[in-house]
Every structure is written in structure tokens, then in C-alpha cells.
Design a protein that fits this description.
Xyl repressor (chains A, B), Nucleotidyltransferase, domain 5, homodimer, alpha/beta, about 400 residues, 3 domains, Arc Repressor Mutant, subunit A, five-stranded mixed sheet
Chain lengths: ~400, ~400
């Protein structure tokens, strides 16, 4: 019996089952039904279909539970090899390529140092095609199909038109990029802001299930933000909303990488912290324009060890960050603000000044009940989120492809 | 034949017809159908129902059109007396009560000077009950029914729970107000932020039909904002989003009415302009804490006449406003920002500095294509918007009530 893809309820239920298996790992049929409000009979029928199509597998029944009661349940899980997606993260002078399996796990990751800032549009296109081709040649034989590609980019992108509008990683503006990659690799290409990828990853976590209005701030070389409103990414009229790094702390203040003055980024990003520190503190040698992780860790360590100059620098950054967050609270009134990104390494040294600044800036009614939390950074988080988004965007197509392949 | 209110398509079509008649005035049946994608037969049936229920009336056929061609069309229009709503606007030391008819037009308006800042919760409740009772006693006999009440309040409200969370007009916090009024007047009560009422009025205008992401900034004694995302008011997690007036221009800057420093309101509101002017310029006498319209017009006139001190004051206000709008552009990326409110009287004197500040603050990619426009202020705009929202919220109930009344 072919999966009746014209039946939208059936399709929605099938997609919900796949998503649950991806987020929760192996699950028993009965729990899949309960988690998604689907009848046991429907779950049985959907899982039979998915088994036939090779999209899920059964796990041998688990041994008796510790309680010793109840019959052991057969768990079902996604077949990791049913499909893969490639996530490419484009940042300043570096691209990361990650292959994610159908279960959403990273199967391969590689980094390349590339002078991104001087690339022409053609060179960028050729570079991405070449790197993705290489990774496909090496990895694709382990999978049934390449379901899609996610391109995660710092800066302003139009996901709708597949165009990078403005990125600190590029010297270019308005680069249409999705269409040529889609044509070259015969799959759908999702262009996303890097902070939106992180937000997607975090919002799927049970700890944040009660926070549909979520703001994620990414500290690092630059400063990014993602805003989820009722669980959906908010991108504004043209994709350039949530540009927190370039919202203002101080008119005519410190010079920002964007060329304007007084942006939050010009105080609380890695390059701003490094710039404030370099003439006063002894840090490991490196490229002054792009401080290394080692240099930034050395600076953070100085602050942690009580060096007054390093503490002053982080405190100033924390104050700018706090004033910026105060504006976010006044304008977005979110349930939760999560601060992450590689720059979160220095968050403890900024935290007190950040909270003071928020209290100084806003009456308590406007701070409200919004929680402000940090989240430990893992450099694979962007690609993990990008993989999840690319899989989610392509699940319906994967279903159709596996059905066609089975019928052929 | 009773209107089958259980048929949701029929109900939706009927509500759409009523809304179109309210927004456009008298319309021919054929145009009503075309505007709402409803078949001529359905429009005929719906309008027959509405005629029987007394909710619409027919206009005698118009004389021949100027072209002389075509048969004159019978127009239908809402019966203004089918229902009324009362909108109460609560601002600092003043309440305005307006009665709107079923066609959305103002039929009566009155103002009362009241010391709002010192009212207890009980006294506020009694005051509103007394004023609404008085207006009902005087006006209600002209209408079939009181459909609802809209309470339009400056500040942060929870429409959901009917609670005024924080308003500059009150010395109180967290005042539940809707429930007692609903019980007293046996009708639904809508509690709304005043800027949302204005935004509702503006967004219905054909000129803004292509701007689903709309920001309305209200300049006046205080500064308010409403944000529409895809045409829907954005209120945040607890109703306190879009508090533009208390977003920041300058850390540790000028004192704001909220008690904090450096808010946009502390530079660009009426009280801030007056405060900056009062020791340097000769203005008509008045209450220094709450500058009068006459005083503010005198100050605006000085700037228009080229008085350098008045020009400097407006220019500084424009700069603060511009930096605030820059943050709104970076964070919300709207299609359009409309500046209105009584303070728009001084907008011409702020405009150049505002645009300079925006250009100084943001790279062109983040300014994008967002239009920034002013809109001439009319002191009835808040209540016009409140009336429209209250009517829209109660149309289904009005339909049901008229059906019940006709059957009785």
C-alpha cells in the first residue's frame, strides 16, 4: 500500500512521527502516538510504511525495565543512512562543512581556511561547489540520497530568494547563491542566518518548551541574534530583522566593523574586546584584525584571575550588552534571552555589569519575567541546527523519493 | 430562514461583508462579492438576511453615472443605529468617551479632566462606571444595543486578562479592569494599548495595504509604539512589547518620566521638549509638568520661525528619535514606520536631524527599503481605532443578538 501523500492529515502525522524520532531518539510506538496525539492504529500503519521504505528500523525489545513490570517494548528509530544533508557554515575566513545523517547526527565535519573577504561572487560559487562536491564524493556512498543542503551564513540573508544580502564574511552584497547550488546538486538548498540555526537547535530542547518567544544572542567575532515569535523565526520585511549587533549603545561611540559607530558589536564582540585590550595587556601573538580563540581565552583568563584592566574591559562590554538587551526587552518582551556563541567564554566576566545595566535602563515592569541565561558554546551548534532545519525542510520530499524508489 | 451561524463559511462571509461596508461605506452587491471573493448568489442571500435583521439598509438607486452608461446600482450600507460601542481613552488627567455607531462613525464625544494619577483601583473602577453609565443614559436610546466597550490606555496592558499592567496615566500597577465593566454593562470589554488602536485605524487604509510589517510611533506627552507583524499587533510574551519610548538613546542621559535615564521619551516627548525650552524661551503660562497644546504649539512655532534655541531643541529631539528608529529598523526591519500623535506638530522641525541620525547609525543595508512617513494627527484617531476594534470584536455577537431579537 503506497503512502497516500495526497492525504494531508496522513502526511502531517507521518512528518510528526519522523520529527519526534529525530528529536527524541528511539521511541516505542505507543509513546509516538501519545506524543503526537495519533491513534495506535495510525501509528502502526505509518510505521509499517516507513519500515518498508527503509526510513526507520526496529530495535530488538529492551530488557525488562528496572521496575520489572510491563512487557518490554520494541522501539523504533530513524535509519541514519536513509538520507543525508550537508550543512555549510560560512564565516570570516573559514568554511565548515558537515554531513548530517537522517537521524540528525553529525557524521563528518571539516574546516577550510579561505580568504572569504576577497572572494568574487563567481569565486564563492565555485568554492562552495568544489567543497560540497568533494565532501559528497567522499561521504555520499554511505547514504541512500542527498536530501538537501543548508548554507548557514553570518549576516543578513533572504531565505526566500536564496540571496546573501550582506555578510561580514564577504566583501560582496546581494549574492544569489541558493539557485546555482540547487541546480548543481539536484536538491533543495536552504539559506539561513547562522543565529537562526542555533535558535532552531535550542528551541527544540525540552527546557525551553515553555518559551515560544525566544531571543538567542550569539557573541563571537561579531554579534548575531535570532528572534522566535510563537516559535517561528522572525525575519522582518526583507530578512534583515534581529540585527542586534548593529543596534546602538552610544551615539558616536566606538567604531564598528560595519563602518558605523556605537553599535553593541563595537563593545562586546571579540574584536572589540581584543582592540580594547591589545595595547594594555600581554596576549599571545596573532592576527590583530581577527583575534584567535587562544588570544580571546587568554584575555578571559586574565579577567578571571582578577586583572583589573581585563575586568574593566569585560565590565564595559557587559554594560553595552546590558543596554542592548534592555532595548530588546522593551521592544520584544520575550520569555527568555539565551546568550551563546564562542564569546560566551567571557560571559561570567560581563554578567554583573550586564545585569546592572539592564536594571539601570528599565523599570521593573519592562524587565518583567524575562529570564536571561547563557548557554555553553559548542562550535558544531550552528551546523547541528542547520542540519535539523534542512532535514525538516526536506522530509516530505524524502518520503516521496523513498516511495518512488520502492515502487520502481 | 435563520442565518445558519453554525456554518462557519457563511458566518465568515457575513462578517467580511459587514467589515467591507464599514471600511468602504455604501457598496453595490456586485462589488461586495468581488471585494470578498463571494458569489453573487451568496451576497444576495447574505444581504437579504442582514436587511431582515435590520443590520443594513438599501440606498435608492444612484442617478446615472457621469458616463451615462450602465444601469444605476442599488447600494447597501450598514444601519448606523443597529448597535453602538463606547470607547474610553484614558490618558494623563483626562478621559475621553466616544460613542461609535454600527457603521464605525463617531456619534458623540466628551472629555473630562480627572486627576488620574492619584486614583485608587476602586476609584478608577467607579469613575469609569459612572462616566460610561452617564453616556449610555444619554445616548443609548438611539441604538438597538450596546455591542461592546473599548478601553484604550497609554502604557502596558494585558488584553488577554483585561489588566492594566503599567500606565503613565495611573499611579497604580496591575489593575484588573475589564471584568467588572463587562459585568456592569453586560457586554464584552476590550482593553487595548492606545497605539494599537491607532495602528488598527491606519492599517485599514488602502495606502498602507502593501505594508503588513508596520510600525506606528505616537509622539505626544509620552511616546508610544505599535508593531504590526504580518498585519497582526505584536504584543510580546506579556503585553509589554513595543515600548519604544523607554528604549534607550543615551546611557545615563536625560531623566525620563519612568524614573530611568536616557529613554527616547526623555528627549522627544512633549514634556522633554518643554523642559529643554522653559528656561530659555518665552512660552505661554501653564502647568509645567504637563505642557498644554497651546504651549507646545508656541514652541513649534518658534522653531518654524527660525528661533535658533527652539531649532536646537527640536534638532536634538530629532536626533534621539532617529537613533531610536535606527534600533527599530535593525531589530524589526518593517516595511513602513508611521510617525503620528499630537507631537507630530513638531515633526518638520525634527525631521532633518532624525534622518541624519538614522544614516549615521546604520549601514544602508539595514535601513533597507523601509519608508518613514508622518501622519497628520487628529485627536479622535485613538477612539476611531478603538471603535473599529470593538465593533470587529463584537460583530459575530451582534449578528446572533439581532437574529434572536427578530425571532422573539
Amino acid at each position: 500500500m503506497a503512502l497516500p501523500l495526497t492525504d494531508t492529515t496522513r502526511l502531517d502525522n507521518t512528518l510528526a512521527v519522523i520529527r519526534t524520532l529525530r528529536e527524541q531518539g528511539p521511541v516505542a510506538r505507543i509513546d509516538l502516538g501519545a506524543l503526537n496525539g495519533i491513534s495506535p492504529a495510525t501509528v502502526t500503519s505509518i510505521s509499517a510504511e516507513l519500515l518498508q521504505q527503509g526510513l526507520i528500523t526496529e530495535r530488538p525489545p529492551e530488557t525488562l525495565r528496572p521496575s520489572g513490570r510491563g512487557r518490554p517494548k520494541t522501539l523504533i528509530e530513524l535509519s541514519p543512512t536513509a538520507a543525508c544533508v550537508v550543512c555549510v557554515k560560512l564565516s570570516i575566513n573559514e568554511i565548515q562543512l558537515v554531513v548530517g545523517d537522517f537521524a540528525g547526527q553529525i557524521r563528518h565535519s571539516e574546516y577550510h581556511t579561505v580568504p572569504t573577504l576577497t572572494l568574487s561572487a563567481n569565486a564563492l560559487e565555485r568554492l562552495l561547489e568544489e567543497k560540497i562536491s568533494a565532501v559528497c564524493a567522499q561521504q555520499l556512498q554511505s547514504f541512500q540520497r542527498l536530501a538537501g543542503i543548508c548554507l548557514a551564513v553570518q549576516g543578513v540573508v533572504s531565505s526566500h530568494s536564496g540571496t546573501i544580502i550582506w555578510s561580514p564574511a564577504l566583501g560582496l552584497r546581494n549574492v544569489p547563491i541558493s539557485a546555482c547550488l540547487a541546480e548543481r546538486f539536484h536538491c533543495s538548498v536552504l539559506l539561513e542566518n547562522d543565529a537562526n540555526c542555533i535558535a532552531n537547535l535550542l528551541t527544540a530542547q525540552p527546557a525551553y518548551a515553555d518559551c515560544p518567544n525566544l531571543v538567542v544572542i550569539m557573541l563571537g567575532y561579531g554579534i548575531g541574534m535570532s528572534v522566535l515569535i510563537n516559535g517561528e523565526p522572525f525575519v522582518g520585511a526583507n530578512g534583515s530583522a534581529a540585527e542586534f549587533g548593529h543596534s546602538k549603545y552610544l551615539p558616536n561611540g566606538a567604531l564598528c566593523a560595519c563602518g558605523r559607530r556605537g553599535c553593541i558589536e563595537a563593545y562586546a564582540s571579540d574584536y572589540a574586546l581584543y582592540r580594547a585590550a591589545v595595547n594594555h595587556l600581554e596576549l599571545p601573538p596573532g592576527d590583530s584584525a581577527h583575534p584567535s580563540e587562544q588570544q580571546m581565552q587568554a584575555l578571559t583568563q586574565l579577567a578571571q584571575q582578577g586583572n583589573p584592566e581585563a575586568q574593566r574591559i569585560y565590565s564595559e562590554a557587559g554594560q553595552a550588552l546590558g543596554y542592548g538587551i534592555a532595548n530588546v526587552l522593551a521592544l520584544f518582551n520575550p520569555d527568555l534571552v539565551i546568550i551563546t556563541g564562542s564569546g560566551v567564554r567571557g560571559f561570567d566576566a560581563m554578567k554583573a555589569a550586564m545585569h546592572s545595566a539592564i536594571d539601570e535602563a528599565l523599570v521593573t515592569e519592562l524587565i518583567g519575567n524575562t529570564r536571561i541565561e547563557s548557554y555553553a558554546w559548542d562550535r558544531d551548534m550552528t551546523c547541528m541546527g542547520g542540519i535539523a532545519m534542512a532535514l525538516h525542510a526536506t522530509d516530505a520530499q524524502t518520503l516521496l523519493d523513498s516511495q518512488t524508489a520502492r515502487e520502481a
